[in-house]
Amino acid sequence: MRFSWFVACALLTACEAASSPALPDASPKPDDAGADAPPDAPGFDTDPPDAPAPPDAFAPDVPAQPDALAPDAPAPDAPVPDAPVPDATRADGGAGCGALPLCDDFESSPVGGPPARWAVVSPNCSGTGRVAVDGAVAHGGSRSVRVDGGGGYCDHVFLADTAVAPTLGAVVYGRVFVRFSAAFGDGHVTFLTLRDAADGNRDLRMGGQSRIFMWNRESDDATLPELSPAGIARSARPTPLTWHCVEFRLDQGAGTLQTWVDGAAVEGLTVDATPTMDVDARWLSRAMWRPRVVDWKLGWESYAGQTMTVWFDDVALATTRVGCGG
Q1: How far apart are CA 86 and CA 104, in angstroms?
Q2: What is the domain partition of the chain in residue ranges?
Q3: Could you tell me if 76 and 261 are in contact, meaning their C-beta atoms sit under 8 angstroms apart?
Q4: Torsion angle, CA of 83/89/91/94, rounded to 10 degrees?
Q5: 237 closest CA partner among 250, 249, 228, 246
Q6: Full-prediction pTM beyond 0.90?
Q7: Sheet of strand 212-217: strand arrangement
Q8: CA 248, 235, 177, 63: dihedral to nearest 10 degrees?
Q9: What are the backbone dihedrals phi and psi of residue 101, each rounded to the nearest 5 degrees, phi first?
Q10: What is the pLDDT of residue 151?
Q11: Contact at 8 Å (CB) between 130 and 145?
Q12: For each successive 10 residues of the chain (326 residues), what is the average pLDDT?
């Protein structure tokens, strides 16, 4: 049609004053940037394998030996999570560091050496425990910290930071991606501690017993949850050789503690203002528990003979919730 119009104009001298309409701009716009996909959120193992034997230092992962202690009750089939905390409470939507007071992905530390900003410690006594940056296993990037912890108490080892925790104020948030070479056994173990200056410099410890995640107060050996069948069922179990995102919120002024595993709040790992049977009733039997933490340690300590290789990555301390995404 447009060609016929020009022919007609050529025949009529009036076409010199005519002009064809401009075509609309059909240039495509750039695609919007896609949001980063969230990481896989591994679920909890509902039927974990028997606890395997730890690998030798920096050897391929192999199963670890079970602990000598027998559980009083069977392990739970699955955690019973509360509703997750809203995203608006998170300081950083992903595993990245942002401007957090402490955040380390270990990418700047040389493989085979100690992590750059941390001290490597074995409180009270030392044995076979070892810490080194690993270039073969990582949650994000290409490096993590590998801890090879022995089965005896003195075979414990931790990477420690004493500079940040005392500066955070009353409310302390922590986030760590952690990977275990084997399932937890029935005996007591620890992989994270916070030294409490208000409790005789004893540790507030996170680890496991009866095959579940558990908090423990060193000074009186109170456990969270209580290790009854109902208490065990309210916690969560780690899956071997799987990265788990473990977060906590410690309100030192209020004496409360919340814990999330892979983004879901865990009822059995919660201390609030109201004692709950099988969860925090024993914990709250100590009146006015008000911790004042002055360090943060990550590693392995065993009280019943279980050895373990543990990897840590993308670890953070902050004054608001960091989250597991990214």
Answers
A1: 24
A2: 101-326
A3: no
A4: 30
A5: 246
A6: no
A7: 119-121, 157-161, 296-302, 189-196, 202-209, 212-217, 222-224
A8: 150
A9: -60, -40
A10: 97
A11: no
A12: 36 36 38 38 41 39 39 42 36 59 96 96 96 97 97 97 98 98 98 98 98 98 98 98 98 98 98 97 96 98 98 97 85
Tokens for 62, please give them: 């192999």
CA distance 263 to 192: 18
CB burial of residue 295 (10 Å; 0-12, 13-18, 19+): buried
How would you write the chain as a 3-class SS string?
CHHHHHHHHHHCHHHHHCCCCCCCCCCCCCCCCCCCCCCCCCCCCCCCCCCCCCCCCCCCCCCCCCCCCCCCCCCCCCCCEECCCCHHHECCCCCCCCCCCEEECCCCCCCCCCCCCCEEECCCCCCCCEEEEECCCCCCCCCEEEEEECCCHHHCEEEEECCCHHHCCCEEEEEEEEEECCCCCCCCEEEEEEEEHHHCCEEEEEEEECCEEEEEECCCCEEECCCCHHHHHCCCCCCCCCCEEEEEEEECCCCEEEEEECCEEEHHHCECCCCCCCCCCCHHHCCCCCCCECCEEEEEEECCCCCEEEEEEEEEEECCECCCCC
Name residue, tokens 């410099």: 201
Could you name the CATH architecture of 101-326?
Sandwich (2.60)
Burial 37-52, CB ≥16 within 10 A → b, else e: eebeeeebbeebeebb
Which pLDDT belongs to residue 89?
Answer: 34
> Would you say 194 and 293 are in contact if contact means Cβ atoms under 8 Å apart?
yes
Identify the pLDDT of residue 301: 98
Task: State residue 92's pLDDT score.
Answer: 37
- Alpha-carbon distance 325 to 43, whole Å? 15
Residue with tokens 């969560």: 236
Any idea which residue has 């050897």 for tokens?
59
Backbone angles phi, psi at 17, to 5 degrees: -95, -5
